[in-house]
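Lab notebook, entry 57. We have the chain sequence and a SMILES string for zinc ion, and the next step in the workflow is to get a structural model of the bound complex before anyone spends time on docking refinements. Request logged below.

Task: model protein plus zinc ion, output structure tokens.
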Amino acid sequence: MFTCRNQPCGAQWQPSEVEIRNEGQGTMFRCPLCGSRNYVERVTKDDGSVVYKQPRA
Ligand SMILES: [Zn+2]
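Result returned:
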């Protein structure tokens, strides 16, 4: 679950509900509700699959 960091939006999204992209400043998604950039960390697991984690505020 991702949380939009833009106050007072704070909307929560499943990873499948947002489009994660790299716009050159890091991996991020735009909140579908307010359009704010929210940065996420790309993590490659031992089995080679990629997951995205939202850094703790
Ligand atoms: Zn938002």
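Notes for the group: The chain has a mean pLDDT of 94. Worth checking against the assay data. The pocket of zinc ion is lined by residues 4, 6, 9, 11, 31, 33-34, 36 (CB under 6 Å).
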